[in-house]
Write a structure and sequence with these properties.
Oligomer: single chain
Number of helices: 11
Mean pLDDT: 81
Shape: globular
CATH superfamily: P-loop containing nucleotide triphosphate hydrolases
Strand content: 15-25%
CATH architecture: 3-Layer(aba) Sandwich
Helix content: 25-40%
Strand order of the largest sheet: 1-4-5-3-6-2-7-8-9
CATH topology: Rossmann fold
CATH class: Alpha Beta
């Protein structure tokens, strides 16, 4: 065997003992894009409870504190608020609605602080949320003393004021879904020294118009400050179609109630809730209601 033959044989033996080379072929762009799409789709179908704008309300604790129960329909307070909400819904969507501006926007107020307006606003929202064909948005517009989230034992973080200041671009960013399917909440957000001007702004007007008209089946409950001594409430009264004035039996003064009503828009439908009425039951937790009419 000559030297050439020896060299060829040595090369063949070397190639035979060498591990086969693995060639990595890059995936086509379409395959990568499909994988990314599937990943994004999986992210999008996360349950609502994992979403940033989802809040969990402790319904058992709320019921124990005397609020409308979303599970036990025969409680006295459920029956009382069922009667209250029926007139409100009729005003919002019935024949009278044609003569009201934003008939499905209901402001809940009182003449003075401490008469139970937030308690009433939350109960109305809970009761309406039990309707099969209605949704309800609860808005805390008492930006000076926000109490909705505190009453629900939840954090008052980003809300209405952030939207009015332009820090949030649309209502969807401040609207919170809840574990009650038909209930949404917008908190008051942070306090601001220009709250009166912000509530009177064009941006607030646009927000109310969107709240009123975006969903045809929606009732908007707005917890507003007391009417006496607070400029913000008179401004909000021009944006709502209905007003519920909460009074406390044996506490609210008739003179205060008359002054409060004089600040409301005369074109509104106005009703009254009598809080802590002794007429319903012995423990003083009853609620009376009557409709004062429109114009």
């Amino acid at each position: 065997m000559n030297s050439i033959e020896k060299a060829l044989l040595k090369q063949q033996n070397s190639q035979a003992n060498k591990e086969p080379e693995i060639v990595k072929t890059p995936l086509p762009d379409s395959t990568i894009e499909r994988a990314e799409h599937l990943s994004a789709k999986a992210e999008a179908v996360k349950p609502e409870s994992m979403a940033a704008n989802f809040i969990e309300i402790d319904l058992n604790k709320l019921s124990a504190k005397g609020f409308v129960s979303t599970t036990t329909s025969r409680q006295l307070i459920n029956e009382e608020y069922r009667a209250i909400k029926r007139k409100i819904i009729d005003n919002a969507f019935g024949p009278l609605s044609k003569s009201l501006t934003n008939s499905n926007i209901i402001m809940v107020t009182s003449s003075r602080a401490g008469e139970g307006k937030t308690f009433t606003a939350i109960n109305l929202a809970l009761s309406i949320a039990l309707e099969q064909d209605k949704t309800v948005l609860l808005v805390d517009a008492d930006v000076l003393r926000p109490n909705v989230m505190r009453t629900l034992e939840l954090k008052n973080e980003i809300g209405l004021m952030e939207f009015l200041l332009g820090e949030k671009n649309n209502l969807a960013e401040i609207l919170c879904k809840t574990n009650i399917p038909n209930l949404r909440i917008i908190s008051a957000g942070k306090s601001h020294h220009l709250s009166t001007e912000l509530l009177a702004s064009e941006r607030m007007y646009q927000a109310v118009e969107e709240m009123a008209n975006r969903y045809s089946d929606r009732i908007v409950i707005v917890d507003t400050p007391p009417l006496l001594g607070i400029n913000e409430t008179a401004i909000l009264a021009n944006l709502a179609g209905q007003a519920i004035v909460v009074t406390e039996e044996n506490k609210s003064k008739m003179n205060d109630i008359q002054k409060a009503i004089s600040q409301l828009n005369p074109e509104m439908a106005i009703g009254f809730v009598v809080n802590k009425s002794q007429q319903s039951n012995s423990d003083g937790t009853g609620y009376g209601y009557y409709y004062a009419g429109a114009r």
